[in-house]
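Notes taken during the Thursday session

The instructor put the following on the board and asked us to keep it in front of us for the whole hour. The protein is Phylloplanin-like. We were told not to look anything up and to reason only from what is written here. First, the residues (154 in total):
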Amino acid sequence: MAPSYSYSKLSLVMSLMVVTVAMTNLKADAQFLRLVSINGVLFCSANGSVTGSPTPVFINATVQLQCVPGTVVSTSVTNGSGAFSFLLNPLQLLLSTLLGTCRLRVATPLTACNATLSPTGVLTSALQLSGNIIAGLVNITQLVPSGFHLVNNI
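Then, after some discussion, the predicted structure tokens were revealed:
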């Protein structure tokens, strides 16, 4: 009986070693599982930010990600809290492109949330790096708006 007990103990130890090596390899491969997340909150103001108390959020606003003027890469709609979110595959857009040439553009007229705001202007913002997080085997690069500002349409 002793030899079979030792054999199953050895078998268990070997199995654990194989699983450990496999998990180490998976963790190394996680570098290839990447996403880019763009998140923000849009407020109903001339610069899309909190300008005083209370500043309401901009609900149901269409926020576009544009990397060439006039070319929409992705679209999001703000929720009841004014929050918007994009989830992108970094193989389609390089991080340097997102940070260098891409802009967020609010396509919904500002008058939709406040009739006293500009009927012809749009809010735009560049992007900035917020950080990276690891969620399981996925590395998520987080970007946020650097600050919305009003651009008048001509």
